[in-house]
Design a protein that fits this description.
Layout (H helix, E strand, L loop, with lengths): L2 E7 L3 H10 L3 E8 L25 H10 L3 H7 L5 E2 H4 E5 L2 E2 L8 E2 L4 H12 L5 E5 L1 E9 L2 E9 L5 E4 L2 E4 L7 H7 L6 E17 L10 E4 L8 E9 L2 E8 L9 H9 L6 H6 L2 E2 L5 E12 L10 E3 L5 E2 L7 H23 L5 H31 L6 H19 L1 H11 L11 H8 L3
Parallel strand pairs: 1-2, 1-11, 2-7, 4-13, 11-18
Antiparallel strand pairs: 3-6, 4-5, 8-9, 9-10, 12-15, 12-16, 12-17, 13-14, 14-15, 17-19
Length: 444
């Protein structure tokens, strides 16, 4: 064992996956979750405002989730979630055209955020040394001799109490107040990088009349700067249940009815899927709307001082526009990175001292490529929303991205390579083949 207790603030996907990764290394892993978990099947939780929206677990995320939870595949089967191939059953429409279909050998499953969280909760409850404390809220850090040794918390409105730990990890997501806490203790300020493209989401479950010949898992239609500010996604999440979402850039008005939502989504797809979608009925009259979505990185590693034994993970460190489906996968990558850095640091030093900063630096490196991928278009939309002229580098990146998509339409090998990079299975250098470079330089 490398310590007696790890304390994780936040019991979402980041916190739960981190608890599972760290449980073999500590006598006790305590997770403080301000809400309560559903006792039955996967369900939305009021403290997670994006629960009702369409989220995609990228192929890399499914790979890591399956390594953290060996029973993952069987548990997804119990939920009757279909199996599929990345480039055969995840279909993309761009500019009114469908990308090609071909077997890649890369498995995918339809996983909403509540589904992934329910799998993690189920796995956590099988571990004797992981303690889930629900209705628990952290209020402040206690720092001694340059290290965070304990926190102040309350449970279910009770009196404040103090709990000590060898390592404290903030996984509270977008609502984390850690930056403010650090400034109150004389640390900081925390530098941030923010790109706001005025993104809004509207989601609803639609029910088709029939699901015969449904050989797809996800249907996605991509926005296109500057003439197509809307995009859409439809995912099969159960028998005759299509979780559908409309994403709008530049502060577009959100749909006022389920019929308007369905029709705005349908017009973004080529036939025959557009006709199939128009025939569906909404499962309920309510639409889940979500705004205030910004790409934001909190650059903790650039602070002049950083207290030891404190780490930040998941959306508390970096949040993305959900359009790119990176959030859940990056949470799992971060948890995996926790374990890797812990093992390496312990083998070198035999101590937890200095681990927190080393992990934070490693986490920052994992964000670099997804961050740049997400901002290729979002920076352009952000410039337009603020009536600024896009920079020359942003224009060049957007042009190269468009040419790469055109290349994917004309070459199966390029398409598979592109999807491997988009699903974080391979680095962008995976696309640097002579064939792909030729296609990008002179698209068919």
């Amino acid at each position: 064992m490398k310590g007696s207790r790890v304390l994780i603030l936040g019991g979402g996907i980041s916190g739960l996956s981190s608890a599972l990764v760290l449980s073999p290394h500590f006598e006790e892993v305590t997770v403080l979750e301000r809400g309560k978990y559903s006792a039955g099947s996967p369900a939305e939780r009021k403290n997670t405002p994006q629960d009702a929206h369409l989220h995609v677990l990228l192929a890399r995320g499914l790979e890591i989730l399956s390594s953290i939870i060996p029973e993952c595949s069987d548990w997804l089967d119990e939920l009757d979630l279909p199996r599929g191939d990345l480039t055969q059953h995840v279909r993309f429409s761009f500019g009114g055209r469908w990308l090609p279909r071909v077997d890649s050998g890369i498995p995918v499953r339809p996983c909403t955020r509540p589904i992934v969280e329910s799998l993690l909760v189920r796995a956590v409850r099988t571990k004797d040394n992981i303690i889930l404390r629900e209705d628990a809220r952290a209020h402040d850090l206690l720092i001694r001799r340059g290290a965070v040794r304990s926190i102040v918390l309350s449970e279910a409105g009770g009196a404040n109490q103090t709990i000590e730990a060898d390592w404290i990890i903030d996984a509270r997501g977008r609502s984390s107040q850690l930056s403010k806490w650090l400034e109150n203790h004389g640390y900081g300020p925390v530098e941030e990088e923010v790109v706001d493209a005025g993104v809004t989401y509207s989601s609803c479950i639609f029910v088709p009349e029939t699901e015969h010949d449904m050989d797809w898992i996800v249907m996605a239609s991509s926005p296109r700067f500057p003439d197509q500010p809307e995009g859409a996604g439809v995912m099969r999440i159960g028998e005759r249940k299509w979780l559908s979402a409309l994403v709008g850039y530049g502060g577009l008005p959100t749909p006022r009815s389920t019929e308007e939502l369905r029709d705005r989504i349908a017009r973004l797809y080529p036939a025959p899927f557009s006709e199939r979608l128009k025939e569906t009925k909404a499962e309920s009259d309510s639409i889940a709307h979500y705004g205030r979505i910004r790409n934001r990185r909190r650059l903790f590693t650039k602070m002049k001082d950083w207290p030891d034994r404190l780490s930040v993970i998941g959306d508390a460190a970096c949040t993305f526009n959900p359009r790119y489906g990176q959030g859940m996968t990056l949470a799992l990558i971060a948890a995996q990175t926790l374990g890797t850095v812990l093992e390496s640091h312990w083998a070198r030093t035999g101590s937890l001292d200095g681990l927190a900063h080393r992990f934070q630096s490693a986490l920052d490196r994992t964000f670099i490529i997804p961050w740049q991928m997400a901002l290729v278009e979002d920076r352009l939309w952000s410039h337009e929303a603020q009536q600024r002229t896009p920079t020359i580098p942003d224009k060049i990146l957007a042009t190269l991205s468009q040419r790469l998509l055109n290349a994917a339409f004309s070459d199966i090998g390029t398409y598979i390579r592109f999807m491997n990079v988009a699903h974080l299975l391979e680095p962008p250098t995976h696309l640097l083949t002579l064939r792909t470079l030729f296609k990008v330089a002179a698209p068919a």
